[in-house]
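User: Quick sanity check before I run a bigger batch. Here is a single chain. Can you write out its predicted 3D structure?
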Amino acid sequence: MRRMCVVLIAVSLILSGLFLVLNSACPMQLHGPGQVIPRTQADIRLLKDVVMFYRLDHHEYPGALNDLVDAEIIHDLHPDRWGSDYVYRVEPDGADFVIYSSGPNRIDEFGAGDDVVLIGKEYGCPVHYGCPTLCERMRDVAFLGAGLFWLFAMLGLLFWGCLAGVRYVRDMLH
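Assistant: Done. Predicted structure follows.
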């Protein structure tokens, strides 16, 4: 019984140590390359809101995004995360507009391909640049393994401890 407890604790400590080593080797990145698409979409949302504000003030959509700077609604226009200007088009009837980024390949594919749009698209690893590395995957597996092992170890110790306690009480009563 004691040998089993020592083995459970030793394996739990080894898995926890492995997680700590892997976590220091490849820490979680909240602002890393995996955030490129969500940040670009946030920029597009902001530009969309500013264009709507311009329309409320001028009763028409701006002819170009630079009109927002000329109207002093924004100070300047930043390029997208890949260094290209955002694509902005007013529909021919003037009733609507589109804004999107031409994406990593910097080619305007009219919202298709790797262009970054707000809705209707899912981005895979090659475009998203957010695929986990081997190190990150190993860290996550070690974390999951250590957590599950700790859970089962504690449940096992609780179960064996309860059985030992029940036997002790039973033996004392008889």
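The CA atoms of residues 75 and 149 lie 55 Å apart.

User: Great, the batch can go ahead then.
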